[in-house]
Amino acid sequence: MEKLKLLLLAFFFGFSINTWAQKIEVSGVILDEKGIPLPAANVLEKGTGNTVVTDFDGKFKFSASNKNATLIISFIGFEDQTLKLDGTKTNYSIKLQPNTTNLEQVVVVGYGKGSRKNLTTSVTSIKGEELNRGAISDVGQLLQGKVSGLNISSSGDPTRTASVVLRGVSTLNSSQGPFYVIDGVPGVDISVISPDDIATIDVLKDAAATAIYGNRAANGVIMVTTKKGSKDRTQIAYNGYVGWEEVSNQLDMMNADQLRAFTTKNNLNFTPENDKGANTNWQKEILRPGRAASSSHNLSMSGGGAHGNYTASLTSLNKEGVMQKSDFSRIIARLSVEQFAFDDKVKFGLNVTNSKSTYQNVPQRNTVLLQAASYLPVSPVKNANGTFFENFVSPGYFNPAALIEHGTDETKTNNLVGNVTAEVKLPFGFTYNLNIAHQKLTTSHGEFYDSYYSQYNSANFYNNPDPPLTKTLVNFGINGSALRNSYENTNNIIESFLTWDKALGSHKIKAVLGYSWQENTLGDGFQATTTNFPVNNVGFNNLALSNYTSVNGYVVNFGDSKAYQKTRLIGEFVRLNYNFKDKYLLQGTIRRDGGSMFGVNNRWGYFPSVGGAWRVDKENFMQNQKFFSDLKFRGSYGVTGNSSGFNAYTAQFISGSLGTFYYNGQQIGAYGPNQAANPDLKWEKTATANIGLDFAILKGRITGSIDVYDKKTTDMIFNYSVNPVLVPVGTIVANGGTMSNKGIELSLGAAIIKSADFSWSTNLNLASNKNKIVKLTNPFFIGGDSIRRVQPDGGGQTGSTLQIFKEGRPLGQFFTLKYAGKNADGVSQYYDKNGNLTTTPLNGVDYHYAGSAQPKLLLGWGNNFQYKKFDLSIFFRGVFGNKIFNATRADLFRPSTAMTNNILVDAGDESPNDLNSYKYSSRFIEDGSYLRLDNMTLGYNFGKVGRYINSVRIYQTVNNLFVITKYSGIDPEVEQGGTAPGVDSNNFYPKTRTYMFGLNVIF
């Protein structure tokens, strides 16, 4: 036994000596293609976590585990280089080759990947490190200004997602946003992804790129690829920040002294019930005391081996809103595993992500915003006894601070996405892929308004909905009211496709043949409302404590009868790519889609596309020139569809309650049809023609692309008015309309300065789009070529509308009274329909076209500077040529009501005798153009710190530092999505300015 111990001891001692003896110290310098040293380049020993970073002079010293180790040298913007040690040489000079044109960049194009150099379609790719940074709770905001043609608008509300429109609005229906595909899973809610987990985002713009997704691709497709583990390195990383937000701008309302001086000057008097000698800033009173805090923490672990990789991350995000009771928090857990088997010919994948979010919403948010602007500053927040001040006699006059204090509005969501993938490499260049996915979204929403709300007269408490909805009365019952609902949505997806990738001499062929099956179950849950609670401190979780039966006439609301739906989508698709000598490229796709939500006669649609490209720089006559390093012309045409925005019952006949009628001395419930069936209802189709040019000049120092497109939607679905004799309901959902979008896009990137200590790169994207409603009617249901809409119903504005759907005009066309200044008596006058002056214009009759909410130009301009270990990024974003209807200003521009509602400071020169001054008209249509310094970040990278920390970077970020605009409202970034873009209607949650401090650590 003792001999065995001695032998083992000798063996391990000899093994240790041998291992130690194999270690080798190497050094060197990393240079670019011109011989300029590259500081902060990464040197990694393959298969280990052993790594160093070069110093200011590009030099490094490295302790390799053995004399035959393989080193991987990498630097952003350059091709990775592999160096195999030979045991004899200990000092190396390594030159990296630039990759500034990104020609070899892999782009995710749907059911496969491809090289950017061989694309025939319009695709923009954004790397994770290029996305917007800040206290961002919505992934859509990460792309603001980054992609030409992508119009994204957002307010300061952390509980609301941004509106995203790509290449103009394609439909009059509610769903206008792009279709998201995350790690190959179609239709995933983008909120499940943490910004820190994103590797790349590929935006597919033209129909040739998106047609592979058929009926869901009319509004564009955004492909999100998350980070994967690397078999070459094991890494633990932390990314986090803390910050605070403050309101960047508010309405310029009169304070008590200004308003009192105005009323005195014009012989107006406050009522004693309102005038308590206060000087209240109501816009400030609804804000959170101090600044709103934000924080994010992301911890990730990744690695792998020769036959697999893994990554796991946990993200915690918290964001307070600047308004009281406005708050957002989210926790995201993610796991991704890939395992190879059978000589690496089979790859299995498992991805699981769970996102849990809590939204604390401002109770009666839009009403609070309206009241905070209009409430008199001479009224106090609270009475002397500590109770909230109220004047219940004045109609529509509610203390906004009390509305917040006595209400609760909360939404919780849990979003689980999981998918299992398998990829099998078969003989003869074939590869088979299988993707089975499951998504489950659970939503719980509750509202509680305590007995304080019962004091508000239900005959004059109107809500203040977002346009185009019109305000309605709200009844809060007796002794408090509550609403509670809980719904579950599930999506089950099975997709499989076979790929053939073959090179035959100068010919390369890549073909994809696949099948997609998806079943969605929506709204599986319940809703209930109730009233009459014994105490106030119960909330919406205690519905059983209510006693609604004792309240005469109260009816429990059990929710939407059409909430529960089940739909199925089935698709078959094929794509063929042909490449001849990397010079001539062709692509063709076709998808056949079926959807259960459409008419029984038209549930299937076909969506073809074709594209081609010519890489001019590969021609023989281009080989001797030095100006172009890349030059490619491309063109494409394709047809996509829109199946979103339509529910399972859209094409079906539905009967329901139609109120009551009087019969034989009693009110009898009426029941009958409320939706007509349309068995011929089919897909909306959007056809896009695209011509593009990609180029790189001066050895790739300047790159760019230009795209010109013509996008046309036909068979647009709309709810048409029809003869009740033919259709008893009087309306029918049918195909018929046509929408057109034509535009041009430009993207440029340049490495302006690149030296050992300093570099400056810039990128610019511009986009212009012209939108037009070509046709609004159906041959069988002629209802006129225009529809007046958007009716905010401000004080004294009954019957006034702001916009119109009109053939030959864009979506967001303003149609209103035309202001003509004041007459000799100081009364505002307008042009009638014939161009004559009048002081008594008629709503809808004397209206004129008055500009459009559609922007003429979108701009994004980023600059990145690096000096030694410092880095600075500055990003500007702009929107130009659009109009905004400032209905907020109109409603606060009523001098005659200054004794009952506050007015704007710039209304001080108006006469109370001019009862026309505030009418919705061209007077309140303003230029919505703006240029915003959206993001500025200054960072410092310490590089390797100690033995275990490979990189430490600290940074400070400021978002929305300033905005240059002529718009007089809170902020010109009003809603650009939906069917009522460009309307500021007393509902704008204030934009914020954010200050952040962040830390990135890689172990």
UniProtKB/TrEMBL annotation:
User: What transmembrane ranges does the database entry give?
Assistant: none
Entry keyword set: Cell outer membrane, Membrane, Receptor, Signal, TonB box, Transmembrane, Transmembrane beta strand, Transport
Where in the sequence is the signal peptide annotated?
1-21
* GO CC term, one of those recorded: cell outer membrane
Q: Where does the TonB-dependent receptor plug domain lie?
A: 117-221
All residue ranges annotated as the TonB-dependent receptor-like beta-barrel domain in the record:
383-961
Regarding the membrane, this protein is recorded as: Multi-pass membrane protein
Pfam families xrefs:
CarbopepD_reg_2 (PF13715), Plug (PF07715), TonB_dep_Rec_b-barrel (PF00593)
- Which SUPFAM superfamilies does this one have? Carboxypeptidase regulatory domain-like, Porins
Enumerate the subcellular locations listed in this protein's record, separating them with semicolons.
Cell outer membrane
Q: Which NCBIfam families match?
A: OMP_RagA_SusC, SusC_RagA_signa
Spell out the family assignment given in the record's similarity comment: Belongs to the TonB-dependent receptor family.
The name this protein goes by in its record: TonB-dependent receptor
Source organism:
Flavobacterium reichenbachii
